[in-house]
Structure formats: structure tokens, C-alpha cells
Amino acid sequence: MHFALLLPAALAVGHSSALSITLTPEPNPPDFGPNVFLLNPGTEPTDVDKRLEQIYETNRDWSFYSQFGEHRTAVLLMPGSHNLDINLPYYFSVIGLGRNPGATVVMPGVWNVGLRVDEQQNWMACNTFWRSIENLRMAMDNVDWFVSQGAPLRSVIIDGNLTLSGPAPDWSSGGCIANSKIQGNISMGTQQQWYTRSTAMYPYPWSAGAGSYVCVGCQTIDGQPYANSYNWDADRAQSSHTGLSYTDAPEVFAEKPFIFVEGGKYYLRIPGVTNSRWGPDWESGSTVSFDRVYVARSDTATATAINEKIAAGVHVVFSPGVYILDRPIVVNHAGIVLLGLGYATLVPSFAGGALVEVGNVDGVRLAGLMLQAGPTTLATEALLRWGSEGSTYAGQPGNPGFIYDLVARAGGPDFSAVGTKYFVQINNGWVIGDNLWLWSADHCSRNAQARCIPQRYVDTALEVNGEHVQMFGLSAEHTNKDIVVWNGEKGSTMFYQAEFRYTMGLKSDPGSWTNVSRSAGYRVNAFDHKAVGFGVYAVVAPLADTSVMEPIRQDGGMLGIVVKHPATYTFGMKDINCKNWNSSWPVESKISCKAWSDSSGTCLDLEVG
Ligand SMILES: *[C@@H]1O[C@H](CO)[C@@H](O)[C@H](O)[C@H]1NC(C)=O
Ligand SMILES: *[C@@H]1O[C@H](CO)[C@@H](O)[C@H](O)[C@H]1NC(C)=O
Ligand SMILES: *[C@@H]1O[C@H](CO)[C@@H](O)[C@H](O)[C@H]1NC(C)=O
Ligand SMILES: CC(=O)N[C@H]1CO[C@H](CO)[C@@H](O)[C@@H]1O
């Protein structure tokens, strides 16, 4: 913390421009290190093309190395027109460096591929995670984007159609489009669910099956808002499943920070807070020179060095890589941006506390990071904790905290047990999430039929204690206790996808099980809460090899939604689905009630599909 010690305390915690004078400026242009390709407009030189092709060939399939390896890559495109062919593999982002998406145009190259994610092995896109396209225009007749969770299209313009999966029997479990304009038609293909926000587009062509298609603050190509598809004053008739919801624009929102280049210098653009805005925002915001942005590299950066920069008011861009951190990243400075590129991944090598700790400060933005649980021998309490436990810090609607494109995971690459009590715990008010995937892994490097040895010890994916916390596009899966617990008033979730865990763990090791009864897919202890477009599932046999793994078992079965007060469900929740994928399973291995009320001790809604 030596920067802070050099400065008067008032300056060190404030948002002062005087600070920049006393700091050594960061290099501009920065050195992003070996995992970033910086491409100029035009056609790629053959050697770059070959290297990109090689990354694709090595990292495209479902093998351990591809899916759970340590490779991380970002391709940054200078503004202008590019002829480019990239089929995006695992842990790979293509990002335009213009001031807005229109400034960087991608057209197909010699192979006529352009940018895409196409058909996967076994015709299944359900493992197609961890890749993104951001801040550019695709001048293509059609873009194939056959993905599942953790794979957003963000701030893009697509001139033609967008196809989101191959034909059946392809299976896909996406996905996210945010702050974009899709000028052609959208084909949902086999997508079980999809979250879209603040995008100009044609309507979803049909409704989802068991899952939900949700559009938040979307508009037509001509800029007309899509009307809200439900009425908050109506009763629970609207909590039954439609699979297709349009919702009002967020009352308070700001888009994800991004990088642009002008005159050979790099800048961080921090979009402004807007109110009830429909459609994309590619204009608002403030600009920070990279003189005040530290570019961390996994081969050199330490948690201590990163924390010193943050304490001095310097923003941090994490170059693609895996960062093993020996202490928490602490954000106690207002307005700080932490921006990961190419699925930059942070892993704790310490016990207790949280991997990332945000203090009682406004306007902090976390974007594009993957937070990964460490060994259970050193378990953390949370991977991200926003506000100290017991904090009553209310936050500010004029300057909320934001979390964008966050992946938190436990298990996958690991060969020994991993854990964290919570993936994310939010104690402060006015924190807003956009596209989060909180994943206790259901398949791992040592996987066989969803065994996922070793064990993952995650109690709860998300716990919210602050007021006015809002989640847009939340996926949370396979935790050992309640998947989401929401205690703060005036919260909301627009789009939720959740799956209970499949098994207790190894049949031969009951001592390692987490025995609970009636765990919830989504528990609301607050009274005032809004929820739209939910799909909560129990997936049991035959995914788990029951000769080795003990199927999930809970006395009384699992509960889809649990509310304290019946009115919270009746008036606050719209388009909710709960489904048992195999209804032949015994009651203790599936969802027994769609919506349960704690105060009345009754099942309010039995409609489990
Ligand atoms: C775009 O989608 C429309 C409607 O599905 C279809 O008629 C048209 O052929 C598609 N265009 C291309 C280039 O795929
Ligand atoms: C969980 O329950 C099983 C019986 O169903 C028991 O054998 C086991 O010891 C329990 N595990 C723990 C950690 O309590
Ligand atoms: C559903 O569960 C029953 C009972 O265990 C089993 O026999 C059947 O194979 C399962 N079906 C599917 C499609 O998983
Ligand atoms: C590119 C394309 O095919 N666009 C069409 C999408 O669908 C609408 C009707 O819903 C047509 O008017 C567009 O031409």
C-alpha cells in the first residue's frame, strides 16, 4: 500500500484528480503480453492467420485441455475494416477498439468464415462456454453463434441474421446479447433459454420450451420499445410459464466499460448511468487515459501490486491468463474499474475472506472476470464479496456498483476438492449484475457421466443482503444448499436459469456429502421482490452414473421457489417454470413444489413440469 502511505488520507480515498499528478503514469500504449493479438485493419498476414488457426484447432473440442486448460486469448481489433476468419474456441474474445461498435467492421476473410461459433462435437452446443465478441460490427449475411453460458455477444451490430444453434438434435443452453443491434432475423434454434438486454432487434421468433426467453429494455429496429408482457398488479396467473417475456428497461443502468484507441493512445471508456433507457447506449460516458490504467499480466502481477494500483485510484485491466493470488483483491476506492480480457481468471491460494472484496464505495465496476474456487483445504468464504458482512451501506442509485460478464466456478480443471461458501455475496445496496454464470461444475477434468470427482463444496451461488440489488441475466447451478438466497428488500432478477446438483457425491464416501432437506432453487426472505423469466430444473438420471455416484436425495424433495410471504410470489413473480427432467424419480430426488411459502408452511403452486 505504499502509494496510499505517501498521500494524505483524504486524497488516498477520494476521487481526486490531484492524485494523477503524484503518480507515475502507466505506459501508453500498454504491453498486453503474449496472450493478446493486436490486429490492424485489412487482411491478416499469413503468419497471424496460422497462429489463430492453431489456437482454434487446439482449443475447440471438449477435451480436458480445451475446456479446462489455462490458455486465454483476446484478439483486439484496431478501428477500421477487417477481413477475418475466426471460429472462436474456448477462452477467447474478439474485441473492437473503436469508440463504438460501428468503428470496427469485420467482414469474412479468404475462408469466408468471418466471426462465428459453429457446430460443436456431437452436435451439442451445451458445453460451448467462455468466448465473446464485443464492440464491433459484423458485416455478414448471417452470424452463427451456437453457444451456452458464459458466451455473450455484447455491444455488437450484426448486419444480417443471427442463428443461435444448429438444428436438432443439437442442444444448447445459452446465452446473452447485450447493448446490441441485430438487423436481420434471429433464429433461436434449440436454445433452452436466452437473455437479451437493451438491444434493437426483431422479436424472438417463438417462445422457449422449458426455459425462458427474456428481453429487457429491448426495442424494434426502428427504435420502438417492446411493450412489457405482464402486469405487476395482476395475480399469480402470470407466474405460470409462458417462456417469452419482454420487460421494461432497467430503471438504472450503465453499460460495461471498454477500451478504445485513438491516435496510438489507449483509453478506458466508462459508460454513464442512464435511467429507463430502451435499446443500446454507445454514446454516454467518461474517458480515462491508459496513463491511469494498469495492465496486469498473469506472468508478473501480484495481488499486492494490483491492490496498490487500486488504492491509488488506478483502474486495472487483466490481460488474458490465470492469476494465482496469495491475498484478496481489495477495492476500497470509488469508481474503480476492474476489466478482464479473454476470460482472465483469478484463483485464490489463501484461506478465508473473499477473493475479490469491494468496500463501502460507489461506482465500482467489475467486468469480464472468471473467479475460480481454490482447494477446500484453503476455502474462501466468497469469491466476490461486495460490502463487508453485516454492512448496511445503502449505495447510490446515481452511481451503483456493476458486475458484468462474471463467471464464478468451482471445479472443472481441479484434481482435488475445491470450495467456497458463496460464489457471490452482496451486502451493500445498489449493486447491479449483468450476465453472471455461477457454476459449481457438473462435469470436470476427471469426469465420467457427471461424476465430477473431486467434490465441489459450494453452499450457495448468490446471497444478497443489500437493498436495491438487481440481477439481469443470472445463471446459477449445482450448489449444495439453496442456490440463491435473497434477503435484501427491493431486489429483482430478470432472467434466471438454475439447476440443482445431480448427486450427493461419491456413493462410497457418505461422509463427504452435504445432507440438507428442501433446498431452494431461489429463496426470497424479503417481501418486496420482482422476478421474471425463470427456469429452475432438477436433472437426475441417467446423467449420473448411479453405480458410483449417489443421486441427489433430500427429505421432502427440492423446492423451486421459496418465499417468506405468499404475496411476494403472487404479485412479484412472472413467467416462472420449474421442471423435473425425469418425473419417474422418487420424490426425494426431484422438485416437489414450484413455490413454497415459509410463513404459511404450504406449497403455493404445485405446477412442476
Ligand atoms: C435470414 O432469415 C430469414 C428469415 O428466417 C430468411 O428468410 C433469410 O433467408 C435469411 N437470410 C440469410 C442470408 O440467411
Ligand atoms: C449424510 O447422510 C448419510 C445417510 O443418508 C450418512 O451416512 C452420512 O454420514 C451423512 N453425511 C454427513 C456428512 O453427515
Ligand atoms: C427416469 O428414471 C427412471 C427411474 O430411475 C429410469 O428407469 C429411466 O431410465 C429414467 N429416464 C430417463 C429418460 O432418464
Ligand atoms: C434479413 C431479414 O430476413 N429480415 C427480415 C426479418 O423478418 C422480418 C419480418 O418479421 C422481415 O420484414 C425482414 O425483412
Q: What bound compounds does this protein have?
A: 2-acetamido-2-deoxy-beta-D-glucopyranose
**Mind describing the biggest β-sheet?**
13 strands, parallel
Shape: globular
**Low-confidence segments:** 1-21
CATH level 1 class label of the largest domain? Mainly Beta
Whole-number tally of structural domains: 2
Task: Say how many strands there are.
Answer: 46
- How would you name the CATH homologous superfamily of the largest domain? Single-stranded right-handed beta-helix, Pectin lyase-like
Helices and strands: which structural class? mainly beta
Number of helices: 7
User: What is the CA-CA span between the terminal residues?
Assistant: 55 Å
In the CATH hierarchy, the architecture of the largest domain is 3 Solenoid
Question: What can you see in these coordinates?
Answer:
This protein is mostly beta strands and 609 residues long. It has two domains: 36-247, no CATH class; 316-503 and 521-547 and 561-605, Single-stranded right-handed beta-helix, Pectin lyase-like (Pectate Lyase C-like, 3 Solenoid). Strands 1, 2, 3, 4, 6, 7, 9, 11, 13, 14, 16, 17 and 18 form a 13-stranded parallel sheet that branches. Strands 22, 23, 24, 26, 27, 29, 30, 32, 34, 36, 38, 41 and 44 form a 13-stranded parallel sheet that branches. Strands 25-28-31-33-35-37-40-43-45-46 form a ten-stranded mixed sheet. The N and C termini lie far apart (55 Å). Bound molecules: 2-acetamido-2-deoxy-beta-D-glucopyranose (4 copies). Residues 141-142, 160-161, 184-185 line the site of one 2-acetamido-2-deoxy-beta-D-glucopyranose.
